[in-house]
Amino acid sequence: MSSVSTDVSTAPAGPPPAGPARTTVFGVSLNIRQSGIYIAFALIVVLFTILTEGALLQPQNISNIIVQNSYILILSIGMILIIIAGHIDLSVGSVVAVTGAIAAVLMVDYGIPWPVALVLTLIAGGVIGAWQGFWIAYFGIPAFIVTLAGMLLFRALTLTVLGNQGIGPFPDPVRTLSNGFTDGYFGNVGLGVLGGADIFSLLVGVLAVGGVALSQWRTRTARLGYHQAVDPLPVFLLKIVTAAAVIMFVVVQLARFRNLPWVLVLLAVLVLAYSLVTTRAVFGRQIYAIGGNLQAAVLSGIKVKQVVFWIFVNMGVLAALAGVIFAGRLNQAGPTAGNAFELDAIAAAFIGGAAVQGGVGKVVGAITGGLIMGVINNGMSLIGSPSERVMLVKGVVLLAAVAFDVWAKRRAAR
Amino acid sequence: MTDDILRMREITKTFPGVRALQDVNLSVRRGEIHAICGENGAGKSTLMKVLSGVYPHGSYEGEIAFDGQECRFAGIRDSEQRGIVIIHQELALCPQLSIAENIFLGNERSRRGLIDWNRTNHEAQTLLDRVGLPESPVTTVSDIGVGKQQLVEIAKALAKEVRLLILDEPTAALNDEDSAHLLDLLRGLRTEGITCVIISHKLNEIAAIADRVTILRDGRSIETLDMGADDVTEDRIISGMVGRDLEHRYPPHEPSIGAEAFRIEDWTVHSPVQRDRVVVADASLSVRHGEIVGLAGLMGAGRTELAMSVFGRSYGVDVSGRVYRDGRQVEIRTVRDAIRHGIAYATEDRKRYGLNLIEDIKRNISAADLGRLARRGWVDDNEEYRVAEGYRHDMNIKAPSVLSVTGKLSGGNQQKVVLSKWIFTDADVLILDEPTRGIDVGAKYEIYSIINRLADAGKAVLVISSELPELLGLCDRIYTMSAGRITGELPRHEATQERLMTLMTTLTSKDPAR
Question: Domain ABC transporter: where (chain B) (predicted)?
Answer without folding.
Answer: 6-241, 262-508
